[in-house]
Amino acid sequence: MRKRLEFTCLQMTPMKRSQCGHSEVTREECLRMSCCYDNTMNGVPFCFHHLIGRCSVKIADREPCGYDGIPVDACRDLDCCY
């Protein structure tokens, strides 16, 4: 699911980024929170929620990830959509 998450990050308009985590979060911390990381632009959050703060994968493109009854945090730790 990491590739899908990275794809939604690339589609994010920089000015519409919503901060994820504290202002000095590291790349590793950011990705652990299932957020996007891009520090190539000044003046916009570099750790930010992906599209609408949740997964936006078309129904036809969805694939099973995790297991039945998986908790939200465990699901997101796997970079899955919940």
From TrEMBL:
Alphabetical list of SUPFAM superfamilies matching this protein: Trefoil (SSF57492)
Secretion signal span: none
Matching CDD domains: Trefoil
P-type domain ranges (all copies): 7-51, 53-82
Pfam families hit by this protein: Trefoil (PF00088)
Disulfide bond found in the keyword field: yes
Keyword match Transport: no
Disulfide bonds: C20-C35, C30-C47, C55-C81, C65-C80
InterPro entries referenced in this protein's UniProt entry, alphabetically: P_trefoil_chordata, P_trefoil_dom, P_trefoil_dom_sf
Superkingdom as given in the UniProt entry: Eukaryota
Protein keywords: Disulfide bond
Protein name: P-type domain-containing protein
